[in-house]
Amino acid sequence: MAYRMDFVPTVLLVEDDDEGRAQLRWRLQASGYRVIDADNGRDAVAGALAISPDLLLVDLNVPLPYEVTAARRIVEQARLGALPVILVARATCLTNRR
Fold first, then answer.
1. Is 96:66 a contact under the CB 8 Å cutoff?
2. Are 59 and 88 in contact (CB under 8 A)?
3. pTM of the full predicted structure?
4. How many CB atoms neighbour CB 37 within 10 A?
5. φ and ψ at 12, to 5 degrees?
6. How much is the pLDDT for 44?
7. 2, 32, 42, 62: which has the fewest C-beta neighbours closer than 10 Å?
8. For residue range 59-95, what is the model confidence (pLDDT) as tens digits?
9. CA distance 1 to 18
10. Do the bridges between strand 55-59 and strand 34-38 make them parallel or antiparallel, or are there none, so unpaired?
11. Whole-angstrom distance, CA of residue 72 vs CA of residue 94
């Protein structure tokens, strides 16, 4: 299988905390990813339908009942198939706290 040299993987970032979302977006973009973000499950489904991301990164504190199933719902409703999903327990854990 041949890969295009200009391929940039797209991450759909679902995080309701503005600061946490900004930090994660910055870190992902600095690592070469294209980032599309959403602050709730409904917008995440719409984003997933629009862009067909390569990875779904979901904060467990996103406002949805039963957050653990939020990722499953996003993948199912957007018909994304075998999309890799990473669940983040707390985006703020990525910051250096002193």
1. no
2. yes
3. 0.73
4. 18
5. -95, 110
6. 82
7. 2
8. 876 665 555 566 666 767 666 667 788 878 764 444 4
9. 39
10. unpaired
11. 24
